[in-house]
Amino acid sequence: MHAVAHPHARPDLYRPGVGAVLVSTWRVGTPERQRAAVEAVRRTWEAREWPDPRLLSYSVYAGTDGDTLLHYSQWTDERAYDDFVRTHRDDRNGEIDAAVPGIERVVLHRYAPPRPAGPIGPDALPGAVSVVESGGEEAIATGGIGTHVHRSADGTRVLALTEWEDVPAYGPAGARWYAPALSLGAGA
């Protein structure tokens, strides 16, 4: 099975079988490099076999700051991700880095699957996503068309991913803003 790209799509945040969510941030520097990095991810993943059936989806959100990318992947469990790192990640990252040199991989956090905080809106593609990460406290403001709260397995971090129709004039304090850019899954 090869990877199939669904541009501007987002993952099914409540997909059955998800046991771990990995969220990482990359800095790329400029809007042009941001677009080039998303395209390099797409090309690199589509050119290879899907690395592991335990990887359920891999999505990329482009920061409205023109600098960052947020990577959101769904796995059956954390061990599946650790196996991927040992066997497939370096060659994929190497090809992406060759296309867009100087990517800074800032942080990677592991979370349990999300739970909704408040009502969830229609299953339509959001135009914007706000992300607020905090220590273990659960002071999460809801809004938009749906807020999805992720807690780290050890309870030390909380991530609130809120979907919006568009970037509002107001929003959660300390939020980083993204737009859906790419979602990948295993294809036939």
Can you walk me through this structure?
The chain is of the alpha+beta class. The chain has 2 helices and 10 strands. It has helices at residues 31-46, 78-99; strands at 3-7, 20-27, 55-63, 68-75, 104-111, 115-116, 128-135, 146-151, 157-164, 176-186. Strands 1, 2, 3, 4, 5, 6, 7, 8, 9 and 10 form a 10-stranded antiparallel β-sheet that branches. Helix 1 crosses helix 2 (78-99). The chain is globular and about 40 Å long. The relative contact order is 0.26. The model has no long low-confidence stretch (mean pLDDT 89).
In a few lines, what is going on in this structure?
With 188 residues, the chain is α+β, with helices and mostly antiparallel strands. The chain is 20% helix and 39% strand. The radius of gyration is 16 Å and the shape is globular.
Shape: globular
Helical fraction equals 10-25%
Overall number of strands: 10
Helix/strand/pairing category: alpha+beta
Q: Number of helix segments?
A: 2
SSE arrangement:
Elements: E1 3-7, E2 20-27, H1 31-46, E3 55-63, E4 68-75, H2 78-99, E5 104-111, E6 115-116, E7 128-135, E8 146-151, E9 157-164, E10 176-186
Antiparallel strand pairs: 1-10, 2-4, 2-5, 3-4, 3-10, 6-8, 7-9, 7-10, 8-9
Helix pairs in contact: 1-2
